[in-house]
Specification:
Rossmann fold, about 55% helix, binds zinc ion, about 375 residues, 3 domains
Length: about 375
């Protein structure tokens, strides 16, 4: 995968981007950087862009030059002699991979000024691998540096954490994300807006959903190919979910069971597109979108600009006129409880049917 230039990325919060860019002006990178952010917030893309900046002998605060010999090495082959990327296979980073990397670390950088190890999903290091990594972090050879990524910092050993400079990625505002999708993906405004609303600020998800087929075919990171394939069905499923919420906002009580069934079917499809997603976490994801929907129905009274799903404004206004805000606050609580029950061991059919019947009963 050809790395993007740091300056071309959208990163939240904005001051984070200038911070990372200013680092590139210094003579040396920090020893170890940990990128923390929810799934889909672009940690992987950012790690590569930032590392590409340091590997380029002609780097500027904008990132790597993209044209020198060192940069083109990466672009042509998808690999770089001075970079190692460790990722879970399939769900753990094992000690063998860390040991092999330790061997590689016996040599000086081949072409770049530094050598980097990127550890994706560092929380998936198994205990032996985590201890081996810790030794490397404690006594790194000269000109070797590390970038780790994880969804949350408290998933890592405290001893690893204390050796890293932690950078926390946030969510991109919907308007900004929509503008970015228009510029990098050439989407028209309405389409870009709809995708940005569904991405909920996670730029990595938005880019993955709108990836042109050609780009993923040239994907050479074999370990991650499965996850990087275009998954229009995920976007389609999320759209189906929003269209279900529209129907729900206008439906009668007797339609509750049918809608609950459709909801479970859509969540089933969401489960299918992500190998790491369980049936329960797919249902929880569906309910998280329902929480956003009900939050929006409450925000509607504050003016359209406060609403996330602006492309569904009519249905949201309908919902807000149909039930009092007191009722909708109660509903929001009920959805949150249903989500918790699903993540526990509750029966998904009973929970969703009870919930949808409640949402549709006139009070
Ligand atoms: Zn370069």
């Amino acid at each position: 995968m050809k790395p993007k230039r740091l300056a071309e990325l959208v990163i939240a919060p904005p001051e984070l981007k200038s911070q990372l860019q200013r680092m590139l002006d210094r003579p040396h990178p920090p020893q170890s950087l940990l990128l923390v952010g929810a799934p889909g917030t672009g940690k992987r893309t950012l790690a590569r862009a930032w590392v590409a900046g340091w590997l380029c002998p002609q780097r500027t605060s904008e990132g790597h030059c993209g044209i020198c010999e060192v940069c083109t090495k990466w672009s042509e082959t998808g690999e770089h002699p001075d970079l190692r990327i460790l990722a879970p296979t399939p769900d753990q980073i094992k000690i063998d991979a860390v040991r092999e990397t330790r061997q590689w670390m016996n040599f000086a950088p081949a072409v770049a000024p530094f050598r980097f190890v990127i550890l994706e999903q560092a929380h998936r290091l198994n205990p032996a691998a985590a201890n081996a990594l810790l030794k490397m972090l404690e006594e790194p050879p000269d000109r070797y540096h590390f970038v780790l990524t994880a969804p949350a910092s408290d998933l890592l050993l405290q001893t690893i954490l204390s050796r890293c400079r932690v950078v926390r990625l946030g969510r991109i505002p919907t308007d900004e994300l929509a503008r970015y999708l228009m510029s990098v993906r050439g989407l028209e405004e309405g389409e870009a807006r709809a995708v940005a609303e569904l991405a909920d600020g996670a730029v990595g998800n938005a880019l993955r959903w709108t990836e042109p087929p050609a780009e993923s075919e040239t994907e050479t990171d074999s370990k991650r190919t499965k996850k990087s394939e275009p998954t229009p069905s995920e976007l389609e499923s999320l759209r189906a979910l929003l269209s279900l919420f529209e129907d729900l906002s206008r439906a009668h009580l007797e339609e509750a069971l049918r809608l609950a069934e459709r909801f479970r079917e859509i969540c089933k499809a969401l489960e299918g597109v992500d190998e790491e997603r369980s049936a329960r976490s797919a249902l929880a994801t569906g309910l998280e979108y329902l929480i956003l929907w009900y939050r929006d129905s409450i925000a509607v009274s504050g003016g359209a600009h406060t609403v996330r799903f602006q492309t569904h404004l009519d249905a949201l206004q309908h919902l807000s006129q149909r039930f009092s805000s007191h009722d909708r606050f109660g509903d929001l609580q009920a959805i949150t409880q249903a989500r918790r029950a699903i993540l526990g061991n509750a029966n998904a059919q009973i929970v969703t049917e009870t919930l949808f019947a409640r949402l549709l009963s006139e009070r």
